[in-house]
Amino acid sequence: MLTAMAQNPKPSCNRIELLQGTLDLLILQTVRAGPMHGYAISQAIRTGSREVLQVDTGSLYPALHRLEKKRLLRATWGLTGNRQRARFYELTAAGSRQLTAEHAHWLQLVEAIGHIINPVPEGGPA
Predict the structure, then answer these.
(1) How large is the C-alpha radius of gyration of the chain?
(2) Which domain CATH number covers 80?
(3) Which residues contact 106 (CB under 8 A, 6 or more apart)?
(4) DSSP 21-42
(5) Domain tally, the chain
(6) 45 domain-assigned
(7) Are 10 and 88 in contact (CB under 8 A)?
(8) Per-residue pLDDT tens for 74-95?
(9) What domain range includes position 39?
(10) Mutual orientation of helices 38-48 and 57-69 as an angle, nearest 10°?
(11) Which of 2, 73, 77, 87 could be a cystine partner for 67, CB 3.0 to 4.6 Å?
């Protein structure tokens, strides 16, 4: 599950589930920088979102395997910085094309939601 930490005084209410498909976009965007292992991807999403987004391992690894099966990511075995064996994921050419398409779709979605949240009255701004 991809969650966002909400600004809520009750710890039990601090998780907001994000749209399905958002995780794939975030993973593809993250590995665009170069090959990364799962934990590094998770941490990059977390730090890149300024500690707002958190990817549960129960969602991350199935998403990585799904993206690999679709040939959007390529996985190879390697060693992490602390010499542990791990699978490193990198963007394929098809993954790069998919990222471009999903990014455009995301921008359309953000704009559409923005129009609903901040409607402009007919006739334009006052």
Answers:
(1) 17
(2) 1.10.10.10
(3) 22, 25
(4) THHHHHHHHHHTTS-EEHHHHH
(5) 1
(6) yes
(7) no
(8) 999 999 989 999 999 999 999 9
(9) 2-107
(10) 110
(11) 73
